[in-house]
Amino acid sequence: MKKIFCFAILACFVVSMAFAGETPAKFEKTLMLKGYIIDNKCASSQNKNQLSDFVKTHTKECALLPKCAASGYSIFSDGKLLKFDKASSAKVEIFLKRPDSKLQVMVTAELEGKELGLISIENQQ
Question: Model-level pTM?
Fold first, then answer.
């Protein structure tokens, strides 16, 4: 009897989410982040405990190397590494190619699942 009751509650939840037009996995949220841009190749080669120090010494020239740029980009902010989606990584690369751009940035992005969709990017002041 207890199992039937739990199943009924779960079914009601699923149906209500369907009528609401949202699924739990499709939650979107606008974020404003300050942090460091890093290419995914270099980020994955670092121990997570050392990443906070590494991003401070990582260079823009390295981030723009063909293999690094092809791996896509992330932002390291508040001790977390958040990856940009493919289209946003292309926008980050264009930003980094500007002579006045830096790796220490402020971004506005949409969190879509586990990836960020870039809205805007600028150097930190």
Answer: 0.76
